[in-house]
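pasting for the record
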Amino acid sequence: MNKFKISVQSKHYMTMPFRLKNFLSSCLLVLPYFMFSIGITFYQRSFLQMFHFPLLVVSCHLVLKFLASIFFRCLYHIIMKIPSAQLSWDSKVSKFAPIGISSGIDVGFSNWGLELVNVSLYTMTKSTAIIFVLINALILRLEKASVVLFLIVFSISGGLFLFTFKTTDFSILGFVLLLTASFASGFRWTLSQFVMQKADMGMKSPVDMMYFSQPWMFIAIFPISLFLEGKISFTYNFRL
């Protein structure tokens, strides 16, 4: 009996450094994400006040991200000496088209809405994305429903809402665009988790996800940009 207790205690202490390492690794990934996310939000807001083509900006970003994903994907697989993930056309359409289209709507409409509203209203509206993530995660059975989970999600969203409530200049179009982007964001992230965690998909890294989803994001946003901003953009560049 004593030996059993000692073995259980030793396993418990062995898992502690692993948990600490896992926690620190998560912090190293999450903290830079938050810093860059906050920085790019304020930068985009100031930039779009001068350059009024938010969807064109997103389209250019998507092209650059796709080229970067090709480079880093090749580099990653050369260094790790593992073959690149190859998918059939059916998998690209059925699995990555919904992710790419919803991601394109999320990023594109967020940029468009950010041009019309201030950062406070942007933050308040986009904070609803976590609710849509929870709803989609429950539908796809990625999460189990619990009272604690609902309390955490609604506490975060409610806290962000109250934090920015008194400093907003309301814009109906901007609000609708951002709410649509939040809905697409919830759909996007739950589908991304669903695909990344499927072993038969062969997704070796997040760069693979970028590589397969960026073309669909471009297909979703660029026609809208061309329709709404094409003529104005051409006139603007001609004047310059």
